[in-house]
Design brief:
Elements lengths: L1 H12 L1 H13 L5 H5 L5 E3 L15 E14 L5 E7 L11 E6 L4 H6 L5 E11 L2 E5 L2 E4 L11 E3 L8 H14 L1 H4 L5 H6 L5 H9 L7 H8 L4 H27 L10 H9 L6 H14 L6 E6 L5 H14 L3 E6 L2 H15 L6 E4 L5 H13 L4 E5 H6 L6 E6 L7 H9 L6 E6 L5 H6 L5 E5 L9 E7 L3 H13 L3 E5 L7 H18 L6 E4 L5 H12 L5 E4 L12 E6 L7 H8 L9 E7 L5 H12 L3 H12 L1 H4 L2 H4 L13 H17 L1 H12 L3 H4 L2
Parallel strand pairs: 4-6, 9-14, 9-15, 10-12, 10-13, 11-12, 13-14, 16-21, 17-19, 17-20, 18-19, 20-21
Antiparallel strand pairs: 1-8, 2-3, 2-5, 3-4, 5-6, 5-7
Helix pairs in contact: 1-2, 8-10, 10-27, 10-28, 11-13, 12-13, 23-24, 27-28
Bound molecules: adenosine-5'-diphosphate and magnesium ion.
Adenosine-5'-diphosphate binds next to helix 13.
């Protein structure tokens, strides 16, 4: 390992390299010294003993001390460095078994280091080669005198380009050794003992450097992260999260929000005007929200209901209760299309109710926009609808009483935080989501929210039939959709999702539109809608579709959320295998809103991977948003589920929300006890785990 030793020296001695080291550590998520201790190995290597060459067998991973017999560059079948070593006590020239070390990439210095007569220690996977046993690209170092063997297993850490295991091992070992306070137990001894948890220092030491010759059972527990040492770390992590959530909840309770008692005048008028009766679920949820609004602590409620369950009317009622109380309401949606649709629906519902609504759109002419803003700033306009981006940038709402955030799951963690920062602490908040949150997730990330669930669909819906169809049978689908649309039905045709390139996605949409237009000639009108259109163009297209002037609407995923055209009863999704499960479920929810029998065709490209097959099967077999969300969580993990991918912040490093559900319960109970008995300890614990990062863990 001569070459590596040289780098190691350079790192500790030259300041410019030290800066490089810090950068690389940051890439691994290690921003603070304290994080080094919690950077845990992927696996371990046993360097605690050396084996003799004459006892090696192919298939083993082994460490061997030997003497170099010969080192050569060979050119066939390709350029490589081949080094022969023999057991220490067998001098060169002997016919005893030798081990071949083979390097396909090497530096000239390798040849010098591996000069005949040098003693070397090598480590790697032994396999059968043409000339007997060999190791390809072994780790190696030249032995000078007596090199003691480690007495613990050697950790292999997740690392990044330009950061060798050697360097990483050294800085981590130094961090563990340097400051005992870092590996001290943050929790009281009896607290730990009563829960039959391992002590923290023991867990840390075990996970970084386990003792050699652990049993197979222990090995498996380590790999599966069910070993008590892992359990202790997961528990600590979950405890920190629970503590932070509870602290947040408490802080919120200390804020004062306006008491929105309402008069019932506007809400009653609205209920008289809509052409339906609230479902029982809507009634119940509306009561819960109405009750919260009358309290002086800010509401933070998540209204959860599957696509089409009727969340909008509930939000409108809440909004009117705020208006009745003389306060302003901000109604935010993630996309312009959706915001616009809300605006139209609300305007229609509120026509004759005499509540001015401001529509805040990026594409509004400057003059109109200024008027809208002035109305809001003076307090004359009580109700504003728009995308959350607009609210974030420009709008002043001096008299804000309630903020409503639709399709809340679409916002990234970071975006949600930005919203929270904007003086919303003093307003009530209603968040809506069609993505059901699995119980474990609700217990952890969303534990500081109250949740209302719409668990009943409005009457008169027909369930959507789902069909999985291979891309090869696309022509049949084109013909079938054409026939049904000619007979008066309408269809969405969803373009493939191309995450890497918006431009490519756009091109595909345009091409698909041209294809279908050609296929249907003049018999059907085919529309196109995508994110790059100006918002009035989008609105015009949506309108034409809603009025039935367009029969087939080619769309990128901009239609994913909230859009409501009851006569559209067909949907085709191209490359369904590229979408997330929840996303497919939401898309499918766009149809089946009217009384007509609805069908969703998932076109997929063959061959499908096993995972892709399993995923599509879930959407095919289940129409239950909860079940689909649960499967989605299992398949994709919570980070993506929460929209954390956009923010790039890791949420839970060690615990797994699905598998560690029992630990979450335990951590919740423990958090209560700790806060009651020893708040200072609780604070110290949170600092160790979340120092500077708390904001993100609360979601
Ligand atoms: P989502 O929960 O997906 O946001 P919406 O609020 O858009 O659902 O409602 C879907 C459709 O159902 C809308 O057309 C809405 O007017 C209608 N709707 C809502 N509540 C009822 C009800 N109680 N009875 C009948 N239709 C309803
Ligand atoms: Mg909606």
């Amino acid at each position: 390992m001569a070459a590596k030793v040289a780098t190691r020296k350079a790192v500790s001695e030259s300041p410019s390299h030290a800066a490089g080291l810090a950068d690389r550590l940051v890439k691994l998520g290690i921003a603070r010294e304290a994080d080094l201790v919690l950077h845990l190995p992927l696996r371990y290597e046993d360097h605690t003993r050396v084996r003799r060459i004459d006892e090696l067998r192919a298939g083993e991973t082994a460490q061997v001390d030997g003497v170099v017999v010969n080192t050569d560059i060979q050119y066939r079948p390709r350029r490589q460095l081949v080094c022969l070593i023999g057991d220490d006590d067998v001098a060169d020239g002997a016919r005893r078994p030798q081990l071949v070390l083979r390097f396909f990439s090497f530096y000239p210095s390798h040849q010098k280091v591996l000069a005949p007569g040098n003693r070397v220690r090598v480590f790697g996977d032994v396999r059968d080669g043409y000339f007997g046993l060999e190791i390809v690209h072994p780790q190696f170092k030249v032995l000078r005198g007596d090199e003691p063997l480690p007495d613990r297993l050697t950790p292999v850490y997740p690392t990044t380009a330009g950061l060798s295991q050697d360097v990483l091992r050294k800085v981590i070992a130094r961090a563990i050794a340097a400051d005992a306070s870092r590996t001290q137990d943050s929790l009281p001894e009896d607290f730990v003992r009563r829960r039959q948890l391992w002590k923290y220092p023991d867990a840390i030491r075990f996970l970084h450097t386990p003792p050699p010759r652990i049993s197979e059972l222990t090995q498996r527990a380590l790999d599966a992260r069910t070993h008590p040492a892992w359990t202790r770390l997961k528990f600590d992590e979950l405890l920190a999260q629970q503590l932070s959530l509870k602290a947040h909840r408490k802080a919120r309770a200390a804020h004062r929000a306006p008491v929105l008692t309402g008069t019932g005048v506007l809400t009653r008028r609205l209920l008289e005007r809509v052409p339906f009766k609230l479902t029982r679920a809507q009634e119940k949820v509306w009561r819960e929200i109405s009750h919260d609004l009358k309290r002086a602590t800010p509401m933070q409620r998540l209204l959860q209901g599957d696509v089409g369950s009727g969340k909008t009317i509930v939000a409108a009622l809440a909004a009117l209760q705020a208006v009745e109380s003389g306060k302003q309401v901000a109604f935010m949606a993630p996309t312009e299309i959706l915001a616009e649709q809300h605006f139209r629906k609300l305007s229609a519902w509120l026509a004759g109710v005499d509540v001015p609504i401001a529509w805040l759109s990026g594409s509004l002419p400057a003059k109109k926009r200024r008027e809208a803003m002035e109305g809001l700033a003076s307090g004359a306009t009580p109700f504003a609808v728009g995308t959350h981006a607009l609210f974030q940038q420009t709008v002043a709402l001096p008299n804000l009483g309630l903020a409503i955030v639709d399709e809340q799951h679409r916002f990234g963690v970071a975006q949600r935080l930005a919203l929270r920062g904007k003086g919303l602490a003093e307003a009530h908040q209603l968040m809506m989501s069609a993505t059901p949150i699995p119980r474990t997730l609700a217990m952890s990330f969303y534990a500081d929210l109250d949740v209302s669930v719409l668990d009943e669909m409005p009457p008169g819906r027909t369930p959507v039939a789902t069909r999985l169809v291979s891309e090869r049978r696309r022509d049949e689908i084109v013909a079938w959709v054409g026939k049904l649309c000619a007979a008066g039905r309408q269809a969405y045709w969803v373009c493939p999702l191309i995450e890497e390139s918006e431009k490519l996605e756009l091109q595909t949409a345009v091409a698909l539109h041209a294809d279908l237009t050609a296929a249907y000639e003049r018999r059907l009108r085919v529309g196109l809608i995508h994110g790059r259109l100006k918002s009035d163009e989008k609105a015009a297209t949506m309108d034409a579709f809603a009025r039935g002037e367009i029969q087939v609407l080619v769309a990128t995923t901009v239609i994913e959320v909230g859009v409501d055209v009851p006569n559209a009863s067909l949907m085709v999704i191209e490359h369904a295998e590229r979408f997330g499960l929840a996303q497919l479920h939401q898309l499918r929810g766009r149809v089946g809103r009217g009384a007509a029998e609805s069908t969703c065709v998932l076109l997929f490209e063959e061959p499908l991977t096993e995972t892709a097959k399993a995923r599509l099967r879930v959407v095919y077999e289940s129409t239950d948003g909860f079940e689909i969300a649960r499967q989605d969580l299992v398949i994709r993990g919570p980070g993506e589920f929460l929209g954390a991918r956009q923010s790039g912040v890791p949420l839970l490093r060690f615990a797994d929300l699905e598998r560690d559900a029992a630990l979450i319960e335990q951590a919740r109970e423990a958090a209560d006890e700790l806060l009651q008995k020893d708040p200072a300890v609780a604070a110290r614990h949170v600092e160790r785990w979340l120092g500077g990062r708390e904001e993100f863990v609360r979601a």
